[in-house]
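Give me the fold.
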Amino acid sequence: MPNTIPLPVKCKIMYWYGENEKLNRKSDIAYVKKNFPDTKFRMISQMDHGEYCMVQSEKFAMDLIKISYKV
């Protein structure tokens, strides 16, 4: 991530991460919370990094479709 953030950020940000990678993403999550306070976080239970889209691709796709209708 860049040291300086071009502001204002005019888009919605969602940060999805796997429950099994939470400790590895700790500094990333802290950075995002600090620099993008309106970010919505979603922890995917029992998943590791990128695993949700590979292991449960149909459910992942349906989640993305649901989100796109809310935007």
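The radius of gyration is 13 Å.
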